[in-house]
Amino acid sequence: MSLAPYFARDYSEARSKFLVAAGNAGARIDHFQNPLRGPQGEKLFADAAWIGPPDATRVIVTISATHGGEGYCGSGCQVAWYAQGFAAKLPKGVAALAIHAINPNGFAWTRRVTEDNVDLNRNFLNHATPHPANPGYVALADAITPLEWTDASRAASLRAFDVYKAEHGDEALRRALMGGQYSHPGGIFFGGHAPTWSNRTLRAIFARYLAKVPHVAVIDYHTGLGPYGHGELICALPKNSPHLARMQSWLWGEMTSTEAGTSSSVKLLGINQQGMYEMLPNAALSPLALEFGTLSIPEVLDALRADNWLHVHGDLASPQAKEIKAQMRAAFYPDKDDWREMVWARALKVNEAMIAGLAAS
Ligand SMILES: [Zn+2]
C-alpha cells in the first residue's frame, strides 16, 4: 500500500492529517498559535498530542519541522505512526508526545528557518553572553547571499567557495557555510540573538508535559543530509556522555556524533538537544536527530541560498519565486514512493527501538 496518504502537499494539509490521526488514536491535543500567517493567509500552529497515562514515567517525544520545510517528512512519519495503530501498542507506563510543526511558519513557507530567519537548531544557546564567531561565514557572506540570483552570480559564488576551500580545506568551508553564524541576521544558518517563538514554544511544551518525567526519549525528524533515503541517527552530546552510551545500546550502535566527527553534520552550537538538557536537568534524556538524505549537499545548499536570496532581495510574487520554492521542496522532500518507503521503514524501527529501550530502562 502506498504511504502517500500519510504525507501532505502543504502545511495546512499536514496539520489536518495530524489532528485527524492523533484524534482518532485518542490523543489529547494542545494548540500553540504562531503570531504570523502562512502564504495563503492561513493560521499557523504548533500542535502537541499526548497519548498514554497522564502520570507516565517514560515518554517518547517526536518533533517535526524544527527546520520548517523538512516537516513534510516528520509530519508524514507522525501521521503514519498513529494511522497504523502503534499508539495502541505502547508498553505499560509509556506515553507518546508528538509535537507537530514546532516551526509552522517555516513549514508553511517551505523555508528551513523561522519567521525571523532564525535557524532553530542554532538558537538554543545562551544569548546573554557573546555569540560565537564564524569568521569563514563573514569572509563569504556576500558570495553566500549575492544581490542578484542569476547563473552568473551563482557561478561567481561557487568560485569564491572554491578559493576558500583551496586555502582552508573542505571541513573549514563546510563549517563556514553550515556551522551556524550570529553576525548576519539576513543570512543562512543564522542562530538569532534571542530565543525565537519556536524555541519558547518548545520550552513551554516541555514544561507542561515533561517536567516531572524521569525518562524521556526524543526523535527530532530532519531531512537534507546524507544519502537518498538513508536515516542517520545524529547525537550532539559529548563523546563520553553516558546518555550516548545508553542510546547506542538501544540503537544497534548506529548513533553518529557531531562532537566525535562521525556525523554527516558539522559540529554545531545551539541545537535543540542542548536546550533539552536545560529544560529537563534531572531526566534520563535520550535525544536524537533522525536525518534523512534527499539530494547532494551542493544541491541542498543551492536551494537554501536561493530561498535566502528570495526572502532578502527577491520578489515572492515572481515566477522565479515559484521555481525557488519548488527547488526547496525537492531539496527537503523527495515526493516519491521509494523515498517515503525507505523513510517510514527506518522511522518505524527507530520509534520501536526507542520505545523498547524506554520500557526496559
Ligand atoms: Zn534539519
Give the arrangement of secondary structure elements.
Elements: H1 11-24, E1 28-37, E2 43-51, E3 58-63, H2 71-83, E4 94-100, H3 104-108, H4 135-144, H5 151-168, H6 170-178, H7 197-210, E5 215-228, E6 231-235, H8 242-250, E7 255-257, H9 272-279, E8 284-293, H10 297-313, H11 319-332, H12 337-360
Parallel strand pairs: 3-4, 3-5, 5-8, 6-7
Antiparallel strand pairs: 1-2, 2-4, 6-8
Helix pairs in contact: 1-2, 2-12, 4-5, 4-6, 5-6, 7-9, 10-11
The chain binds zinc ion.
Keywords:
361 residues; alpha/beta; Aminopeptidase; eight-stranded mixed β-sheet; globular; binds zinc ion
Helix content: 40-55%
CATH class of the largest domain: Alpha Beta
Overall radius of gyration: 19 Å
Structural class: alpha/beta
Describe the structure.
The protein is of the alpha/beta class and 361 residues long. The chain folds into two domains: 4-127 and 194-298 and 328-360, Zn peptidases (Aminopeptidase); 135-189 and 310-326, no CATH class. 43% of the residues lie in helices and 18% in strands. Strands 1-2-4-3-5-8-6-7 form an eight-stranded mixed beta sheet, with helices on both faces. Strand 1 and strand 2 form a beta hairpin. Helix 1 runs parallel beside helix 2 (71-83). The two termini are 35 Å apart. The relative contact order is 0.16. The model has no long low-confidence stretch (mean pLDDT 96). Zinc ion is lined by residues 67, 70, 222, 224.
